[in-house]
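Query structure, 85 C-alpha cells:
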C-alpha cells in the first residue's frame, strides 16, 4: 500500500499509538474494506501491534452501509478519480 491511502493509514495509526484514544472510528468509500484495495489486514496488524506494545485492547469491527437505506433519496456513485488533477 504505497499510495496516498497507505500514507493516510500509517499517519492515522501513528496518532492512535501516540494518543491511545478510547476508540477510533474510520469512515471511507467502497473498496476500503472490500476487494483488492482492502486495507482491513493492514488495520488489523497495526491494531495488534499497538495492543501488544501498550497493553491496549483495540478490536476491529467493520460494516459497509448504504446511505440509501438510511433516508438518502438515491445512492451516490463513487467518485471517478480519473477526472481529478
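Result returned for the query:
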Amino acid at each position: 500500500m504505497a499510495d496516498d491511502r497507505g500514507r493516510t493509514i500509517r499517519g492515522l495509526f501513528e496518532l492512535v499509538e501516540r494518543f491511545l484514544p478510547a476508540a477510533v472510528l474510520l469512515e471511507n468509500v467502497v473498496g476500503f474494506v472490500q476487494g483488492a484495495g482492502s486495507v482491513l489486514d493492514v488495520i488489523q496488524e497495526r491494531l495488534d501491534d499497538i495492543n501488544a506494545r501498550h497493553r491496549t485492547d483495540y478490536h476491529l469491527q467493520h460494516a459497509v452501509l448504504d446511505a440509501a437505506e438510511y433516508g438518502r433519496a438515491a445512492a451516490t456513485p463513487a467518485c471517478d478519480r480519473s477526472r481529478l488533477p
